[in-house]
Amino acid sequence: MTMMTRKLRRSGAPLAALLVASLLAAGPLSAQAQQQQTSSAAPLAGPTAEYKLGAGDVIRITVFQNPDLLLETHVSEGGTLSFPLLGVIRLGGLTVGQAEKLIADGLKNGNFVKSPQVTILVLAVKGNQASVLGQVNRPGRYPIETADMHLTDLLANAGGAITQTGADVMVLTGTRNGQPYRVEVDLPGIFAPGGRANDVLIQNGDVLWVDRAPLVYIYGEVQRPGPMRLERGMTLMQALASGGGLTQRGTERGIRVNRKDAEGKVQSIQPTMDEALKDGDVVYVKESLF
């Protein structure tokens, strides 16, 4: 007990004064204590204002200075929930901002709260889904588990692209602002300096398509003939090296590349070793005559 508290008690001061004196003597809370005092169940981080609520989403609704209206619940399969004073309301398909306005207008128009300030926190996202198709390890439909889920998050849920057959450029389709949406995303470019902005946000109903990687085909006098993945900028020499190199009977002078032109006709060309190959090229290594 501090000296100030003992003096107030001897003088017959009221209890409120004793409490104030004790708080003043205790000093400010430590940073750790303040953090413990203000911490609660952490909501999902990110730009949730434009997130559309769906069936199964767990949300917390608070009305400023009205603790009796605090509600933590989930959106039903029909997109509805029961809110105090308002009864059953439909929030499915509304953004967080629209849902907040709907509840605030209902409380105000019903003369329940004069100037309601409504806040909705998305605690768990379960109602929205996106699909991943094509050359991935686990194609299928996946829930959008966070309000700020990006393309790389969705791809990771599907196990990533298949190493040997998955292309680097992926196509995301869906709907934005009521209009059809389509964007091609270069996956390696996302991880380049300044490329994080290309990691687009995923919304309900989006479909991510991972096409097959470009291929070239090698046959003739090579150690391992057959199709192979065409890496970016791969030259003829690199492709031959990936095929194990030429056999003892193969010759560099007899190499031909069959390539389709813009009209779909096949042309036979004799490229240099440092020339880059294209998707669908067929490399033929002839047998040496000597």
How would you describe this protein?
The protein is of the alpha+beta class and 290 residues long. The protein has 4 domains: 3-38, no CATH class; 48-124, 2-Layer Sandwich (wza like fold), CATH 3.30.1950; 129-212, Outer membrane lipoprotein wza domain like (Outer membrane lipoprotein wza fold like, Roll), CATH 3.10.560.10; 215-287, Outer membrane lipoprotein wza fold like, CATH 3.10.560.10. Helix content is 21%, strand content 31%. The chain is built from 7 helices and 15 strands. Strands 7-6-10-8-9 form a 5-stranded mixed β-sheet. β3 and β4 (87-90) form a beta hairpin. α1 (3-10) runs antiparallel to α2. Mean pLDDT is 83; it is low at 1-5 and 11-42.
Order of helices and strands: HHHEEEEHEEEHEEHEEEHEEE
List low-confidence stretches. 1-5, 11-42
- Provide the residue-averaged pLDDT: 83
The radius of gyration is 32 Å
Q: N-to-C terminal Cα separation, in Å?
A: 106 Å
Q: What helical percentage do the residues reach?
A: 10-25%
Shape: rod-shaped
Count of runs of 4 or more consecutive helical residues = 7
Which fold name is given in CATH as the topology of the largest domain? Outer membrane lipoprotein wza fold like
Q: What structural class should be given to the helix and strand makeup?
A: alpha+beta
Report the sheet with the most strands, covering strand number, pairing sense and barrel closure: 5 strands, mixed
CATH class of the largest domain: Alpha Beta
In spatial order, strands of the major sheet run 7-6-10-8-9
CATH superfamily of the largest domain: Outer membrane lipoprotein wza domain like
Strands, count: 15
Q: What's the architecture of the largest domain in CATH terms? A: Roll
Instruction: Count up the domains.
Output: 4
Give the amount of beta strand, in percent.
Answer: 25-35%
